[in-house]
Amino acid sequence: MTLHLPLTQSYTALGPRFFHAQEAEPVAAPELLLLNEALARSLGLDPEALKSPEGLALLSGNAPPAQHSPIAQVYAGHQFGGWSPQLGDGRALLLGEVETPQGTFDIQLKGSGRTPYSRNGDGRAWLGPVLREFIVSEAMHAMGVPTTRALAAVATGERVQRERAYPGAILTRVASSHIRVGTFQYFAARNDTEALEALTAYALKRHYPDAEGPMGLLSAVVAAQAKLIAHWMSLGFIHGVMNTDNMAISGQTIDYGPCAFMDGYHPQTVYSSIDRMGRYAYDQQAQIGGWNLAQLASALLPIMGGEEAIPEATERVNAFRDAYQNAYIARFGAKLGLSDATADDLPLITDLLGIMAEEEADFTNTFRALTEGHNPLPDSLAFAAWHGRWQARTPDLQMMAQANPAIIPRNHRIEEAIQAAVAGSLAPATRLSEALARPYDPPEGSEDLRLPPEPHEVVQTTFCGT
Ligand code: AMP
Ligand code: MG
After folding, report:
1. What is the pLDDT of residue 394?
2. What's the rounded Cα separation, in Å, for the pair 58 and 44?
3. In terms of CB atoms within 10 Å, which end of the chain has fewer, N or C?
4. Rounded CA separation 25/232 (Å)
5. What span, in angstroms and rounded, lies between the C-alpha atoms of 95 and 62?
6. In sequence order, which residues have a C-beta less than 8 Å from that of residue 290 and are 6 or more positions away?
7. What CA–CA distance (Å, rounded) separates 344 from 390?
């Protein structure tokens, strides 16, 4: 079986300031752990060929693509509000792009070894974060959220040293591109207007062909991010590390490090071990999204005409607020079966969330119970009163069934899958992934995956994907 992988590499045409040509560091004993066959086929790739020794060599970084060298992309970013002028793919490599009827997709290895942007890192990933990203990003896709995808997870046969030694792994990530807010910031910080122009043209062509110029790009990204973050909120998703280098221009969710889905509803929920100030808490995400977009606007300013463009750029960034509000109302409206939700329905939404917070009600199961006609809070008088108001709006249950997943990737289940995988069994990870592929119509026998954690199963913190 020969692997036919028609990879192109359009990003290199932007010029040498954008990347470093870099081969992966070979690994000792690659072994295919998970292959996303449906995704492979949708990219026009033959799953059997990817499973062949030649395919495994590519997915482990042991053999470069036939056509060209892989590259590490450079970017900068605000991490937890602090400026880092030099980041980049420190443990990732772009193998190239595939063209499909749905557009162009990057194929990237994550955990493939050191690059000039590794700083003090080892360029590697261990099995835990690789499995987490595989499971969660595919679950997000199944729930309809724009996201990077996971094509494969490969064990390296080597150990990676973190708090202790863990089995190493490499994820193959598929994205509509890896251009970040931080990519623009990198060139803006160097006063490289030529690069900013070229990157803007490239991003427009690839993601927003109907938009024009840097203003058009800004508005398109504002609109995409407003929708994306409202979608996260409607699912109880906490990204956890919304640094500007982790915000994609495409509007896809990217970088599943310390992310998590909430179990019990509490708006200030934080999971990330490194987010000590709660900067990226559940209820801060929209505001942080707006802040990141303001950073994109300032990065684009030099090619928008400088200071004179500030009022218009500001207006376009401020459009985020209404766009987000509208998307939020539409998403939460759909969760309550209101097809024509408007701002007048906000009290109905926020009152329910207030009761849920008071009761620490499970976010996902409360909405799903409403969808399935059960009472999620039988002991709450406040809920009973709310329920009457809601019923008066004659909710559309069909609509609710498409907006309220029964199964989400709960943290304790991901941890369980990771622990089993470290001990040598992929069965829990596979079972979880299969159930998550049908979040709105869960397969029989998956009832246990709907349950919130028992007190001893609660995962308090998640760690960055390193
Ligand atoms: P993240 O917080 O995961 O988005 O990563 C922030 C930056 O740290 C990026 O430039 C990454 O490439 C880099 N990085 C993270 N983990 C590693 C690692 N194990 N080795 C080298 N660089 C890393
Ligand atoms: Mg990142």
Report:
1. 96
2. 16
3. N
4. 35
5. 12
6. 317, 320, 321, 324
7. 13
190, 75 Cβ separation under 8 angstroms: no
User: Of 320, 54, 53, 299, whose CA–CA distance to 183 is shortest?
Assistant: 299
Q: What is the mean pLDDT of the chain?
A: 96
pLDDT over 70 (residue 464): no
Give me ligand 2 centre to Cα 247, in Å: 8
Q: Sign of the C-alpha dihedral, residues 112, 113, 118, 122?
A: positive
Bridge partners (DSSP) of residue 142 are none
In the reported structure, the alpha carbon of residue 79 is separated from the centroid of ligand 1 by a whole-number distance in angstroms of 11
Q: Among 93, 94, 119, 133, say which to mutate for ligand 1: greatest number of ligand atoms within 8 Å of CB.
A: 119
Contact 44, 100 (CB under 8 A): yes
SS3 content of the chain, % helix, strand, coil (to 5): 45, 15, 40
Which tokens belong to 448?
A: 């246990």
The tens digit of pLDDT for each residue in 290-300 reads 999 999 999 99
Q: Among residues 56, 155, 153, which one has the least CA distance to residue 48? A: 56
What is the domain partition of the chain in residue ranges? 7-175, 192-404
Q: Report CA torsion sign: 87, 175, 28, 70.
A: negative
For residue 310, give the amino acid letter.
I
The DSSP line for 205-256 is HHH-TT--HHHHHHHHHHHHHHHHHHHHHHTTEE-S---GGG-BTTS-B---
Of 93, 117, 185, the one to substitute when testing ligand 1's pocket (max ligand atoms within 8 A of C-beta) is: 117
Q: What is the pLDDT of residue 465?
A: 60
CA atoms of 270 and 444, how far apart (whole Å) = 32
Q: Are 183 and 87 in contact (CB under 8 A)?
A: no
Name the residue with tokens 């999620």: 376
Look up residue 423 and give its two tokens.
């001990």
User: What percentage of residues in the chain have a pLDDT greater than 90?
Assistant: 94
pLDDT one-digit tens code per residue, 342-352: 999 999 999 99
- Per residue in 230-284, pLDDT (tens digit) is 999 999 999 999 999 999 999 999 999 999 999 999 999 898 888 988 999 999 9
More confident residue, 345 or 464: 345
